């Protein structure tokens, strides 16, 4: 086979694989205003017609919804009034954490919720303990309890938490220096095809950075979105500038549609193979794009080796044939 044919074959594989990757992630997004919170925050916290309700020390200003001020022992939250019945969705959170405290003299962080319960005060970033649903935490202070937790789990240097830290429940997370930044800070939470993805944009580059990616997450419909925060002996301003929820319309094959219709309705949040998702005990998984390129370059590398092998064999065979003349 001539060189041209080899590289034509490789090019076709590349195009086919790329098209497959594009189709696999083909989706459209639509902003759902009834589940979104943004300026000018009209009626938030005061009008019963508003889709959002304040709790505790949270207050609305012209620039943000302040969950807690930079004062000790404050607790605040903002909760959506409407349950969300979307199958696939994406939440983009524009937030800001800032204050007068020096490094490690600030706290405690904020949380984004998708839970069955709403408007319940408690110790988990201002929300109730033993909640039902999903919590994504921007944790800014390594207090004594978190140090004890780290000792129990015996984090290695590679997995040791460096605060501030973004995490989803106890499934995994990433380090994110989010305090007192001049640029905007964003958090991205996507739930599609029972896969939970969390990304951050905190460098002012308008680029999402992977934080965690967990397959097999099963979240019921009809839960509520919210955001909460709490301060103790240490404090910070915890601000929500916007919560924008997008409905995702995702391409599904006929087989996928039939399988989903046959499955029972999800009523209890769960994660497939949860025992393998203990934080700090598993390595971060490769993203879909990373897997695609790894497979692609492996195939191209194999093709290249085959070509080299055929060329070497051809030269060897030619030299061997000439020895008979």
From TrEMBL:
GO terms, molecular function: D-mannose binding; metal ion binding
Membrane-spanning intervals of the chain: 289-313
Location within or outside the cell: Endomembrane system; Golgi apparatus membrane
Superkingdom of source: Eukaryota
InterPro entries: ConA-like_dom_sf, Intracellular_Lectin-GPT, Lectin_leg
Signal peptide coordinates: 1-21
Keyword Transmembrane helix in annotation: yes
One CC-aspect GO term: endoplasmic reticulum membrane
Presence of the UniProt keyword Membrane in the record: yes
Keywords of the record: Disulfide bond, Glycoprotein, Golgi apparatus, Lectin, Membrane, Metal-binding, Signal, Transmembrane, Transmembrane helix
Membrane topology annotation: Single-pass type I membrane protein; Single-pass membrane protein
PANTHER family listed in its UniProt record: VESICULAR MANNOSE-BINDING LECTIN, VIP36-LIKE PROTEIN
Protein name (Swiss-Prot/TrEMBL): L-type lectin-like domain-containing protein
Main localization of the protein described in the UniProt heading: membrane
Domain L-type lectin-like residue range list: 29-248
GO biological process: endoplasmic reticulum to Golgi vesicle-mediated transport
């Amino acid at each position: 086979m001539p060189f041209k044919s080899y590289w034509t074959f490789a090019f076709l594989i590349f195009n086919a694989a790329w098209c497959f990757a594009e189709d696999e992630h083909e989706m459209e997004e639509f902003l759902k205003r009834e589940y979104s919170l943004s300026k000018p925050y009209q009626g938030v916290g005061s009008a019963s017609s508003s889709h959002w309700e304040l709790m505790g020390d949270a207050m609305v200003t012209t620039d943000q919804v302040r969950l807690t001020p930079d004062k000790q022992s404050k607790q605040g939250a903002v909760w959506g009034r409407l349950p969300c019945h979307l199958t696939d969705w994406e939440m983009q959170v524009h937030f800001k954490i800032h204050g007068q405290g020096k490094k490690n003299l600030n706290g405690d962080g904020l949380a984004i919720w998708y839970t069955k319960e709403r408007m319940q005060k408690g110790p988990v970033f201002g929300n109730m303990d033993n909640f039902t649903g999903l919590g994504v935490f921007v944790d800014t202070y390594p207090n004594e309890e978190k140090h004890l937790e780290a000792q129990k789990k015996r984090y290695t240097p590679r997995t040791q938490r460096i605060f501030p830290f973004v995490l989803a429940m106890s499934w995994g997370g990433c380090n994110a220096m989010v305090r007192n930044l001049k640029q905007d800070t964003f958090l991205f939470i996507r739930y599609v095809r029972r896969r939970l993805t969390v990304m951050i944009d905190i460098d002012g580059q308008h680029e999402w950075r992977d934080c965690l990616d967990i397959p097999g997450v099963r979240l019921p419909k009809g839960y509520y979105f919210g955001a909460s925060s709490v301060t103790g002996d240490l404090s910070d301003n915890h601000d929500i500038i916007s919560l924008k929820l997008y409905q995702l319309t995702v391409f599904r094959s006929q087989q996928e549609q039939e399988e989903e219709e046959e499955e029972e309705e999800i009523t209890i949040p769960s994660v497939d193979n949860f025992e393998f998702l203990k934080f700090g005990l598993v390595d971060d998984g490769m993203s879909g794009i990373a897997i695609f390129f790894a497979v692609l370059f492996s195939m191209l590398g194999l093709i290249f080796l085959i070509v080299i092998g055929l060329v070497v064999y051809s030269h060897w065979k030619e030299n061997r044939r000439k020895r008979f003349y």
